[in-house]
Design brief:
InterPro entries: HAD-like_sf, HAD-SF_hydro_IIB, HAD_sf, YbeY. GO terms for molecular function: metalloendopeptidase activity. It holds the Pfam family Hydrolase_3. The protein is α/β, with parallel strands linked by helices and 143 residues long. The protein has two domains: 15-67, no CATH class; 72-142, Rossmann fold, CATH 3.40.50.1000. The protein is built from six helices and six strands, in the order H-E-H-E-E-H-E-H-E-H-E-H. A three-stranded antiparallel β-sheet has the order 1-3-2, with helices on one face. Strand 5, helix 5 (117-122) and strand 6 (125-127) form a beta-alpha-beta unit.
Length: 143
């Protein structure tokens, strides 16, 4: 088998409604300014996938359409089960709306100060920004 045989190729879709009715959504990612995401893309895609998927915004200019119930928190739960570990043994760091459930689950949830309000509200502590090496600072301070 050639290495490229397993790679999926992009294709142009002329009828999005038909396409959405024939697939299970895994993930769509849109890159755009925060203003366009909040005023155009998010409302549009929330209506289009209502009941089939959920729409979440990563920090800033990234909008994700993912299957219902998909979250980083659920991913961390799966990891904890496989490691026989408890949430109290985990520190999670995040800055986007898509980090909310993970920060809530972790024994210590650290939101970066330049993150979105949704993330900062659920965090246990607010760390430095991405520009100030906030992740590294939190690791050194709390671990």
């Amino acid at each position: 088998m050639q290495p490229d045989e397993n790679k999926k190729k992009a294709k142009i879709i002329s009828d999005v409604d038909h396409f959405l009715s024939t697939i299970d959504i895994q993930k769509f990612v849109f890159l755009e300014t925060p203003e366009v995401i909040s005023s155009v893309l998010r409302p549009h895609w929330a209506r289009r996938v209502d009941g089939k998927a959920q729409v979440v915004q990563a920090q800033g200019d990234v909008l994700e359409v993912v299957p219902l119930g998909t979250s980083k928190g659920n991913g961390v739960k799966i990891l904890l089960e496989s490691l026989c570990a408890s949430p109290d043994e985990v520190m999670a760091l995040g800055d986007g709306e898509n980090d909310k459930e993970m920060l809530q689950l972790a024994g210590l949830g650290v939101a970066l100060c330049n993150g979105c309000e949704v993330t900062k509200v659920v965090a246990d502590v607010i760390g430095a920004s991405n520009d100030e090496s906030g992740v590294a600072q939190a690791i050194y301070k709390y671990l």
